[in-house]
Each structure stands twice: as structure tokens, then as C-alpha cells.
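Q: What does the assembled structure look like for these inputs?
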Amino acid sequence: MIGIGDDYMKKALILLGCPEAPSQTPMAIYAVYQLTNMGYEVTVASTPSAMKLLEVSDPEEFYVKNKIDIESCLENLEEEAYDLLIGFVHKDAAVSYFVTFYHILNTTSLAVVFEKDPDLLENYVETIQENTNANLVSARAYHNPTPLRVKFDRAIKSLED
Amino acid sequence: MSFCLETYLQESENYEILISRAGFKDCKIIIEEHSPEVIHVKAGEKILGVRIIGIPPIAIGIDEEKGTITLPYTKPCYGTSVVELPIDEEEIKIIKSLNIKN
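A:
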């Protein structure tokens, strides 16, 4: 957030997983919108296929202004390069990516975990909780982003407080 | 030129995939059971030119007799695979120096 008498703009990184879960793309654009309103410069790191969905959803880059390939982002990532990490997690690989980004960045982090299978959801949540001190929201969500959006709003509000 | 895992996997056939499209925890068990020697590294540690993705401590298998290492390889849409590939002695030394626990 822009402080008084200070030009520093906080930077947030949103990490997307495999785009096959329908909730991910709308939630990503929504998260960029909310974080931008909070004063963050937001970058979205994703696979080429997830990026394609963002490009079609936001053709004039009205919301998503900074996009980067997840592999090049990881390659050049340094500790505290971002002030906030938000990771969308709905697959085992996304858990691994989130935990890895978390340990490299060593910054305030929020995992947004969603999955329709309750056992998998619990497994992803437990793995993240056991291996990071990240904030976490989770919901049984796949097509419908609303449960996730409501929890996401509460979580980022509490990060601001 | 230094070794690059991404390029190697694309251009060579001299490697073995022990499991593919799996969960990270299963891959860790496979590495630990398969390899005569196992070291553990931090998440994001660079090995053979790429950052290793996973839940730390990440197991890396070493077989000095065969001259191979066995490591997890994760992609967002395909899960984690376990790959065993030949590397030279110097690289094995470098990788061993990354061990975070005994």
C-alpha cells in the first residue's frame, strides 16, 4: 500500500495452478482487482494455458497488468521480492509449488485451497499447515467461486488490519 | 557449459522415469526406497540448473556406483515424477554439499 510521503508500492504475487478448475480464473481476476484496490502492484505467475484464460477474460488488461510464466518466475525468485504471496491450490502439484514459493520468498502468504473432494481438500490443507506458517482459506469449490471469494475477502481484510 | 535438467530431459533419452503424474509424498517414498544414499535439500534449491519443487526436506537419491541421481520433477498440470539420470562425479559432489540433514 502506498504510504504517506513514500513512493514505495507494495508488490503482490498471485500464483496460479493448473487451470482445469473453473473457479481459478475468475478468482484470480477478482484477487487482482481487490489487491490493486488495496494499493498493491500485482503480478500473476501461471502456466501458459492459465495465462491464455486470463488473456481472453481480460483482453485489454484492465485488471491483470503484469503476467509472468511460472517457471521463469521461479527461476529468478529471490527472498522478499514480493510483500505478499497468494497461491491458488487445487492439485497436489500446486501444494508443492506454493510451499516452494513460500520458502524462497519468506514473506506474508495466503494459500487459497479449493477442491471438490473433501479428503483431497483436507490433505492439501494439512500439508500446507504442516510445512508453512502461511495464512490459509479453504472451501469445497469447483465451479462456484462464491464460497472461496467470501473467505478470500475476509482473509485479505485481516491482512490489511 | 553447465548441465541443465530441462534441456537434458527434452533432448536425451538416457534417463529413467520411476513414476509419473504422482503425488509428492509418494515420490519421496520412492526416492528413499530406490536409492542407496539419500540427501535432503531445501525447497527451491537449484540442482542441475533448475529449482527443485516440493515439500521440504526434499529427498534426492544418489547412486555413486551407477553414477546417477534420482529426483522429483514437478509440473503444475502433471503432478510429480521421479527421474533417475546419469551425472558426473563433480555434480554429485555439488549436490551432496546441499544436504541439510544427516
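Chain A has one domain: 11-160.
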